[in-house]
Automatic annotation (TrEMBL):
<dbReference type="InterPro" id="IPR036273">
    <property type="entry name" value="CRAL/TRIO_N_dom_sf"/>
</dbReference>
<feature type="domain" description="CRAL-TRIO">
    <location>
        <begin position="154"/>
        <end position="312"/>
    </location>
</feature>
<dbReference type="InterPro" id="IPR052432">
    <property type="entry name" value="PITP/CRAL-TRIO"/>
</dbReference>
<dbReference type="InterPro" id="IPR036865">
    <property type="entry name" value="CRAL-TRIO_dom_sf"/>
</dbReference>
<dbReference type="Pfam" id="PF00650">
    <property type="entry name" value="CRAL_TRIO"/>
</dbReference>
<dbReference type="InterPro" id="IPR001251">
    <property type="entry name" value="CRAL-TRIO_dom"/>
</dbReference>
<dbReference type="Pfam" id="PF03765">
    <property type="entry name" value="CRAL_TRIO_N"/>
</dbReference>
<protein>
    <recommendedName>
        <fullName>CRAL-TRIO domain-containing protein</fullName>
    </recommendedName>
</protein>
<dbReference type="InterPro" id="IPR011074">
    <property type="entry name" value="CRAL/TRIO_N_dom"/>
</dbReference>
């Protein structure tokens, strides 16, 4: 199947939705006003407080939570967080996910946007602990017995990948990439650090496969042969936290397949943790025909009784695959370029918000800048992100080309 170039493309919005997006961008621009001043204080300023009180419906407790997120980060921190978080995507898409999740309430969407940036970049530090913490590093650490605990954790992380407990293959009926979790392979004795790293590692890889105009991913939790005694509440809760706080609207659909009767009690507990909007995307299936409502038979793997005879096989990391990450001079130059493009995007976004006449030209200029940011990411990518199984099997290709069905 031909590869797909991951460009951003047009985003179709109604006039009302575009107005909401502009209003949200207006708050973001005020938040990032001091982004080129590393010496500026906390991003939560009296001016921002006044704006939020005047232009949003955020209540006192919501403003307090927002202040707690922003009190220990500067506008410059947040600008870098935004550039890191969007990766290959248009920032518009991140903001629109927040708007859709919060039912187009601009204030609540702004609070969600800020929390997602701080959660991913400061609370979890995904760039260092996941993106740059490579599978090859894990392989080397698993063989280094000078630190037995680290070796055990790294080996546990790799083992999750090798056995195919979670793997990615193909697309559903609307073009979303498919993630399959084989519940029967899970063991409750697995360390929480291993599970957390595995979840984030897979999420960050999946994000690169979401090709516009498609939004989100489809996840199948195959519970065939799953023992509820192995249910890991902490891991489930963390996965829900990722879906709701760190990666808004990444989950397009989840199919829980062949859930045992005893799972109904567990589901009642879990459902209390899940926002209604997310819960509405979760479906229970028990037959192949029910899965095929979401995934065409020819794209459903044979292990789920589909017609796709593809089988999972993990390809081990190889020495030298991350050598570009050692070239910090090129990395820094590309990120400096990214900052410059990002600064330009903020400027043309301010023009876009303010301009009514000649808006078509302003919008076209802004789209060009968004595309520059997208292209910059794929030049930067090999210097900041470790290669993974999807790179080695040809799903993710040089320059951001994605092939969901490469030759096996």
């Amino acid at each position: 199947m031909a590869t797909t170039q991951t460009t951003q493309g047009q985003i179709d919005l109604s006039q009302e939705q575009e107005l909401k997006l502009k209003q949200l961008w207006g708050l973001v621009l005020e938040l990032l006003d001091q982004s080129n001043n590393p010496d500026a204080g906390p991003a939560y300023t009296p001016k921002l407080t006044e704006t939020l009180q005047q232009k949003t419906t955020l209540n006192r407790s919501e403003l307090k939570a927002l202040r707690e997120d922003l009190n220990h980060v500067s506008a410059d921190n947040l600008f870098v967080y935004l550039l890191n978080t969007t990766r290959q995507e248009s920032p518009d898409r991140l903001l629109l996910r927040c708007l859709r999740t919060r039912k187009w309430d601009v204030g609540k969407s702004f609070a969600m946007f800020v929390h997602a940036l701080v959660w991913r970049n400061k609370s979890i530090n995904v760039e260092e602990t996941i993106v740059a913490n490579t599978e090859l590093n894990a392989l080397k650490e698993s063989r280094d017995m000078s630190d037995p605990r680290r070796a055990k954790l790294s080996n546990g992380f790799l083992e999750q990948l090798r056995i195919g407990k979670v793997f990615v293959h193909g697309t559903d009926r609307v073009g979303r990439p498919i993630l399959i979790l084989q519940g029967r392979l899970h063991r409750s004795t697995e360390k929480s650090e291993v599970l957390t790293r595995g979840i984030l590692h897979m999420i960050e890889a999946m994000r690169l496969l979401v090709v516009p105009p498609v939004e989100g991913v489809t996840c199948i939790f195959d519970m065939t042969g799953f023992s509820v005694s192995n249910m890991e509440y902490a891991a489930a809760k963390f996965l829900i936290e990722c879906s709701q706080e760190g990666y808004p609207e990444l989950l397009g659909t989840m199919l829980i397949h062949n859930a045992p009767w005893a799972f109904s009690g567990i589901w009642k507990t879990m459902k209390r943790w899940i926002e209604p909007e997310i819960a509405s995307r979760i479906h229970f299936t028990y037959t192949t025909a029910e899965i095929e409502k979401f995934i065409a038979p020819e794209h459903l793997v044979s292990s789920l009784n589909g017609k796709d005879n593809w089988t999972f096989g993990y390809v081990e990391p190889v020495e030298g695959e991350n050598d570009k990450m050692k070239d910090t001079a090129t990395r820094d130059a590309l990120f400096a370029e990214r900052r410059a493009i990002g600064t330009l995007l903020l400027s043309v976004t301010a023009d876009w918000i303010a301009t009514k006449s000649d808006e078509e030209r302003t919008l076209a200029h802004r789209e060009d800048v968004v595309e520059e940011l997208h292209q910059n990411y794929w030049r930067l990518d090999p210097y900041v992100r470790g290669r993974n199984h999807l790179d080695r099997t040809g799903v993710i290709q040089e320059g951001g080309k994605i092939d969901f069905y490469p030759p096996q």
